[in-house]
Amino acid sequence: TREERELELFLREALELPKTKQEIVGQMYIRVTPALSSLALVLNLQPILSNPVTQYDEHALLIPTPQESAILARRILRLTSLGTFSTVFQKNLNRSSTSDQFSYEAPQIVEHVPQGIENTPIGLIEYIADCESSGNPTVLAITVATTFKNIDAGSNVSLSLSWTPPYAPSHKFFSKSQLEYSAANLPRFSLSGHFESIDIENVNRLSIEKCFLKAHPDARIWLPGNKIHKSEWKRFVVQHIYWIGGFGDRAYIGWIPKDMWEDVQEQDIDRAHLPGEKKKLKEFKIDWL
């Protein structure tokens, strides 16, 4: 089949590489040159080599540093438009709540809250956008949403993001070559922080509305001042970053300092490369060498 022919071609190319490059083929790998940050993240293809390497040149194969992982995390934030916000249900949830619809007189709605639900965490997906150079995600906060009701009641909040390749290889193809595509080998991370409002001056200066609608055109109907829900522009101010880059023998797992997160440059985000980001099979092979 075409897939088998492509695999055969890849094997031939890989085995013709100099030894130092054979040693790093297929590993989750980041190479940073002295002149510029050139990053590449690929899946583990080591098992297909005829002579799997058991010892590695420490200069050829590197587990990404926290700083390099920060760049990859910022790349994920740039390409990801949905995130899971986790909050905790607070006390006094059994009180009646009034709809925030203000285009007409709405009746009170009684929330049938189960007993004992207070102090229970809940994770819900919300729209996000990367609109500020500081790495603080932008959110269109709708006051009636559970996430923001919990926050207003005093809950802490965290945001979880993960990388899902838009062009991931098929399980069928990789199983034929004795390779397993594993979501567990893909990066994900959690951001802890708090929300703060974005004033109208900064909304205009940073083109927040334009940036957000580029990622979420349908959100136009919920913009501040709409007649459906009360909403407000907010930024999620990042305080702590916990990163899981993939399998622990080839990826960094741990905390990323806040200053590293904030100091990531636009050119580094643009140069970073995630697996399956583009529609071509060889992206999971050796075109990053």
Describe this structure in words.
The strands form two sheets. Strands 1, 4, 5, 6, 7, 8 and 9 form a seven-stranded antiparallel beta sheet that branches. The protein has a domain of 174 residues: Electron Transport, Fmn-binding Protein, Chain A (Pnp Oxidase, Chain A, Roll), CATH 2.30.110.10. 24% of the residues lie in helices and 20% in strands. β8 and β9 form a beta hairpin. It has 289 residues and is an alpha+beta fold. It contains nine helices and nine strands. InterPro entries: CREG_beta-barrel, Split_barrel_FMN-bd. It holds the Pfam family CREG_beta-barrel. This is Putative fmn-binding split barrel-related protein. It comes from Golovinomyces cichoracearum.
Compact description:
This is Putative fmn-binding split barrel-related protein. It comes from Golovinomyces cichoracearum. With 289 residues, the protein is of the alpha+beta class.
Low-confidence stretches: 19-60, 101-106, 172-179, 283-289
The assigned structural class equals alpha+beta
Largest sheet: 7 strands, antiparallel
What is the correct CATH architecture of the domain at 58-93 and 117-165 and 183-271? Roll
What radius of gyration results from the CA coordinates?
Answer: 23 Å
Mean pLDDT: 76
Based on CA inertia axes, which overall geometry fits? globular
